[in-house]
Amino acid sequence: DIESVTNKKPELAWQIQSSDYVIIAGTLGKSRWIDQLINDKKINVDQIRNQWDGFLVQVVEKPTAGIKRALVIVGADKRGTTYGIYSLSQQVGV
Fold it and tell me: Does an H or E element contain 87, and which?
């Protein structure tokens, strides 16, 4: 969806490398990147914790060394993560 709107194909990576801007998507307790952002108090997931299908989409400044800004999509469960990704698609016009 991002490629269809921007004409740029995003790179899919399982490891975060130095980059100005990234999108991080994951599920509570299933993604080490998401869990690290929570532990570092970069994101607060209290509003979605223990909710079925809940998700949070948030911009995080300097989420980790070498990253300037990240759009973070967090799901309370697997389906919540999927809904969060779909919400991004809607926001970019797909």
Answer: helix 78-91
